[in-house]
Design goal:
α1 crosses α2. This protein starts with a helix and ends with a helix. 39% of the residues lie in helices and 21% in strands. β14 and β15 form a beta hairpin. The strands form 4 sheets. It has a 7-stranded parallel β-sheet with strand order 3-4-2-5-6-1-9, sandwiched between helices. The longest helix has 13 residues. The chain is α/β, with parallel strands linked by helices.
Length: 417
């Protein structure tokens, strides 16, 4: 495997560091940079990542670093084998939710720790973050594209602390973030300013560079094909209009009853499904013989999309919480791949396709920004086209407007609107 020049540059910049953070934009090959850096220490490697990425890491090491043995540590037998194996060139892979529950990992010494999607430890009070902090690693590699696509310096403290930052959290926030205090229902909150969230940013970037952090955006190093985004408008269904007006609607098989802002927001998003929107998906799929990627949120949407693709007699692949099967995507140039945001907006390479449909929008900016990079990445030779299906005069208009600002759409915004 020959690395791209920008990947070689990343490794060269951090050659003297044993603790690094590779904040590379999605599609620039963080996986390769991380694995080459990790294997250079010639010590056992522990990788903690989202559960959906475990098969990808196993496949990567089996293909690229064939001399290293891989162990899926979510399986008790493989965990015991990993802990007992005397070989140095071994790689154990486990997900964040399981890692802190495996007390055996606290016995590991003299090893390299790699955290993929390291933004998962942003909350320093969570059990999975505390579990990571307790590990006795010698070398550390953090991998994330989030700081490039949506800089959230207030969420980086725990990662920088692991890299060696000598500053407590309150001092860090006072120095680099514009927080202010507010009260709601008698409870005091610290809130980050939306208009001017950060300060002393140039200083912080230098601090991070000195700690072994590398930032790299796609347009700085790659000349990727053009991206084209097309808004496709559909009319809201009568069910959506009724629910918004009356707070109740009977859809035949399901009743939607207004009960709280959280459930109202969920129901409003689900009720944006309509026959017209599904018919538009049909038109878009029938209009091309190329591979198509469709992003969706809910299982009810998956059922509708699956039935449609089956009627069109197109090969189907899936990436969701229950399955990841890309056989049809890999083997059929006219396949349709249905991807759920939570499971496939990151860590899945789909650059064989150049056409993507957003059946419904996510409410997390990270999901939206990362999903674009599934097809617009190294290896893509064709112009990438994205169709956003938007229900007119609905919550989807507001969600997309918020995502365009690279912000999350939340319950407070919904209540305000």
């Amino acid at each position: 495997m020959t690395l791209y020049q920008h990947q070689k540059d990343v490794l060269q910049q951090t050659e003297k560091y044993n603790k690094v953070a590779y904040y590379l934009d999605m599609g620039l090959g963080k996986t390769y940079c991380g694995s080459y850096k990790a294997t250079s220490f010639n010590k056992p490697i522990l990788i903690i990542c989202p559960k959906s990425l475990i098969p990808q890491w196993i496949e990567h090491f089996n293909d690229v670093h064939t001399e290293w043995g891989t162990y899926d540590l979510t399986k008790k037998k493989r965990l015991d084998e990993f802990m007992g194996a005397e070989r140095i060139n071994k790689v154990g892979i486990i997900n964040y939710e399981s890692a802190w529950r495996k007390s055996e990992l606290l016995k590991l010494r003299d090893f390299t720790l790699m955290l993929d999607e390291s933004q998962a430890i942003a909350n320093n009070t969570s059990k999975q973050t505390k579990g990571v902090i307790k590990l006795k690693f010698d070398n550390l590699i953090l991998l994330s594209g989030t700081p490039c696509s949506n800089a959230r310096y207030d969420k980086l403290y725990t990662q920088l602390k692991l890299l060696g930052l000598h500053m407590n959290k309150r001092s860090y926030e006072d120095r680099y973030c514009n927080f202010f205090d507010m009260k709601k229902s008698g409870i005091k909150f610290r809130v980050l300013s939306k208009t001017n969230p950060y300060k002393n940013v140039d200083e912080l970037k230098q601090v991070m560079k000195d700690l072994g952090c590398v930032f790299m955006c796609t347009d700085e190093v790659l000349d990727l094909p053009e991206q084209r985004f097309i808004n496709v408008w559909v009319q809201p269904s009568k069910y959506y209009k009724t629910f918004i007006k009356d707070g109740y609607v009977d859809c035949g098989d399901t009743e939607y009853i207004s009960s709280s802002p959280a459930t109202d927001m969920l129901y409003a998003r689900q009720l944006c499904n309509s026959k017209e929107k599904l018919e538009m998906v049909r038109t878009l799929i029938e209009g091309t013989e190329d591979r198509v990627i469709i992003f969706y949120n809910f299982n009810c949407e998956l059922e509708l999309l699956q039935q449609l693709v089956q009627k069109l007699k197109r090969p189907i692949s899936y990436v969701n919480g229950n399955a990841k099967n890309l056989n049809c995507y890999n083997n059929n140039s006219d396949s349709v791949t249905l991807v759920q945001y939570q499971s496939g907006s990151s860590g899945v390479n789909l650059q064989k396709a150049s056409k993507m449909i957003y059946y419904s929008p996510p409410i997390k900016s990270d999901f939206f920004e990362q999903s674009k990079k599934r097809i617009h990445r190294i290896g893509q030779d064709n112009k990438c086209t994205y169709w956003k299906l938007i229900t007119n005069n609905s919550i989807e208009v507001n969600i997309y407007s918020t995502l365009a600002k690279k912000q999350d759409y939340n319950e407070e915004l919904f209540k305000h609107e």
